[in-house]
Amino acid sequence: MNGVELFLLGRTLMKIGEQAMPQVKSGSPGATRSVLVVLGDLVSHPGTTVGEIAERTGLPQSQVSTAVARLEAAGSVGTEPDPADRRRRLIRPTAKPSDRVAEVRAATIDDVLAAALADPDGNAPDPGVVREVSQALDVLARRLTPSIAARGRALDTATESPRAGKRHSAPSG
Known about the structure:
Low-confidence stretches: 163-173
Shape: globular
Distance between the termini: 24 Å
Mean pLDDT: 82
Structural class: mainly alpha
Strand content: 5-15%
Helix content: 55-70%
Strand order of the largest sheet: 1-2
Order of helices and strands: HHHHEEHHHH
Largest sheet: 2 strands, antiparallel
């Protein structure tokens, strides 16, 4: 597998994940991806700021702010003044997840995965194939956590040239 194939696989997995999530009952579904990315970051880094989330996730600060506002309105996160700088707010997941978060976490991928693995005529895939792919996804989820991507961004930043903004090749050896 090369980088392009991995990228395309990632996009396919994102689409399957989006299809597996229960639809919002009222209003616009909005930017589901950014809300999920922000919530995932908050679970790993409670007591953080919008700017810190933006830095870790690579999302624009405005998108993070919007996602935090949606999560706060849903009761999934709470904010408090930063004791070190009263102009900033610290964001934490709430102790009890909102009904929407509980609903999304309870949703399984089984039906959507089976549909994605169906043949071009729409015939259901062999149950063994669905089980095999599901187990492979479980392994990937355990091994390739969101913190892996954050470390990758840190490496990208560390290898950029301060003057030219270009990356240096890594030393060999």
